[in-house]
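Thread: "does anyone have the structure for this chain?"

Original post by V.I.:
We have the sequence but no experimental structure in hand. Need at least a predicted one for the grant figures.
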Amino acid sequence: MGKKFWFVLFALLILVVVGCKQSTGNEEYQNPENPGITDTPGNPENPGITDTPENPENPGITDTPENPENPGITDTPENPENPGITDTPEYVETDYQISTSELEALLQSLDSTKGPYNITVTDESPDLSKIKTALASNNSVKVNLDISACSGLAKIGDSAFQDCTSLISVKIPEGITSITSSAFSGCTSLTSINIPDSVTSIYIGAFTGCSSLTNFDVDKGNSSYSASEDGKILLKNKTELFAYPSASGKVTIPTGIITIQDSAFKDCTSVTNISISNSVTTINSSAFMGCTSLTSITIPSNVTAIGRSVFKDCTALKKIHFNDPYGWCYTASYPNWFGKHSGNSYYGMLKTDDGTNANFIKMKDTYYWYKIGSGI
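Reply from O.Q.:
Generated one for you, tokens below.
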């Protein structure tokens, strides 16, 4: 081998050495401690990881502005105590349109702690006795009953909804002409009922015992019935106090009333005192029967007729005050008499202790009082 061979070999070795030095110099420039990894200028302490400006304390994690205490999790305004979880209000179905045949099953399925439920009966001519039975099957469920679509109904019959204590309100249909005896009696939770203009006859006692009934919603087109301004009193022909089932405490009969109808205050057990206006001339039978808390009543001189059993079962009644001392009166000489005084005569009738004909009542002080019948 000549000199030329050795010269070429030496030159190649030099090129190899120079190339290796350049390669080693680049690695030291990138990261002399961790070859092959480049430090970012933003984070010289943690190679290869960049701090976000939002959260310099936790590299690589960004706090959300909604919840700075829990990085990466947003509190919902609905439930700030459980981050990331939204409270949704429980939806309770309260409106139902249903046939009579399905009503009982529906009422038995409803939660009595919810409601009241608005239930519309869709039958044209439903059997009201079946509705009553369905209501009784779960009377702890409060119901606003709408039968206004039942156009085939002509009347609300005797005792149709008697003692349906679950009823809160009732909407009856246009076309109903009569509401008969005890139709809603004993519906102690009933607060409101409408009287369409088609109603021409409401029987005595239809609303007896409806102690919560404060809104008689009488159609303005009804020519037979109306309501007092506050809706609590049902009037007939505007001058007859027909029913005041929610009466309580001290009651004043409004001026303009001429007749207090039969059973108008029957079983109003919270009434304590009644003052009758001078416009009243007639108090019909059983008007105040069963007013067990009634202690006193004032009867004006214009009253000329008092029906039978007006104060029957008024067990707390101690005083009946007559504004006309020469009109209605009680005499110590005849403790069993209660009659209209005319000259030297007393119109009335002495009754026996066994209650013959039941024309008298027994009061707390054991006196017996006769109620004047019509024509006397």
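V.I.: this helps a lot. Residues 25-32, 325-376 have pLDDT under 50 and may be disordered.
O.Q.: and The longest helix spans residues 3-30.
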